């Protein structure tokens, strides 16, 4: 691994990234053809947060948060810090002190494929975090890694400047060059969902709205009266 800090990488347009955040993870994920989701292992440490920002990426060694300290300097307003480790780790690599420093720099949140701690304090100061674990286990600051390089997390490759969208449903990534297309697709998806919501409020069934009823016989699904069912 090359131990390097890449400075000032290009970032997705922050206004467009913010528009993705308004739609949320599930809508954007569906709009982009069910791609970009980082999986169920990354969960919010407290519910009710929704963010979208541009990725500052960190590759750290397990149990070592040196490169998070290095990365703080590279963060700008609107960024989301995204941390992966070279091998699995659940140690508490991030806590309230880091969050305080990142809030000062306008960072919108953290996504980390490892552990965090000081959860009550993170909630108190309103700093959103999505992590793979919560652990009080401390770390060292001894092993060099990398900042603002491509990292692998949740089956996705995340590059610096990519859009990160996170809420109670999880986390997803949209490649920097795909953000304009994602905004258009998410808006269209949201409009379609609103029309469906209105139809459901009027009593329409999904079976009919989605054209599923006529497909059921071909799937071998039968409607059988109770009396007939009891006789079999």
Describe the secondary structure blueprint for this structure.
Elements: H1 14-23, H2 25-31, E1 43-44, E2 51-60, H3 66-72, E3 79-85, E4 92-94, H4 96-104, E5 109-116, H5 119-125, E6 129-134, E7 146-147, E8 151-153, E9 156-158, E10 163-167, E11 170-174, H6 179-201, H7 206-209, H8 226-231
Parallel strand pairs: 2-3, 3-5, 4-5, 5-6
Antiparallel strand pairs: 1-6, 2-7, 2-10, 8-9, 10-11
Give an overview of the whole structure.
This protein is α/β, with parallel strands linked by helices and 232 residues long. The protein contains 8 helices and 11 strands. It has helices at residues 14-23, 25-31, 66-72, 96-104, 119-125, 179-201, 206-209, 226-231; strands at 43-44, 51-60, 79-85, 92-94, 109-116, 129-134, 146-147, 151-153, 156-158, 163-167, 170-174. Strands 1, 2, 3, 4, 5, 6, 7, 10 and 11 form a 9-stranded mixed beta sheet that branches. It has a two-stranded antiparallel sheet with strand order 8-9. A hairpin with a 2-residue loop joins β8 and β9.
């Amino acid at each position: 691994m090359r131990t390097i800090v890449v400075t000032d990488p290009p970032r997705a347009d922050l206004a467009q990234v913010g528009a993705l955040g308004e739609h949320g993870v599930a809508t954007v994920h569906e709009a982009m053809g069910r791609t970009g989701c980082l999986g169920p292992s990354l969960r919010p440490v407290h519910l009710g947060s929704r963010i979208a920002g541009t990725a500052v990426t960190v590759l750290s060694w397990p149990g070592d948060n040196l490169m998070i300290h290095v990365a703080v300097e590279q963060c700008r307003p609107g960024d989301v810090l995204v941390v992966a480790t070279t091998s699995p780790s659940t140690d508490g690599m991030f806590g309230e002190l880091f969050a305080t420093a990142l809030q000062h720099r306008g960072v919108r949140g953290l996504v980390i494929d490892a552990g965090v701690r000081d959860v009550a304090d993170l909630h108190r100061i309103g700093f959103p975090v999505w992590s793979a674990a919560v652990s009080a286990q401390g770390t060292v600051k001894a092993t060099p890694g990398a900042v603002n390089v491509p990292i692998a997390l949740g089956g996705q490759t995340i590059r610096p400047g990519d859009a990160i969208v996170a809420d109670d449903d999880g986390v997803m990534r949209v490649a920097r060059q795909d953000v304009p297309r994602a905004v258009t697709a998410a808006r269209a998806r949201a409009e379609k969902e609103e029309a469906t919501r209105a139809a459901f409020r009027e009593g329409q069934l999904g079976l009919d709205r989605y054209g599923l009823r006529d497909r059921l016989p071909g799937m071998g699904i039968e409607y059988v009266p109770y009396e007939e069912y009891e006789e079999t």
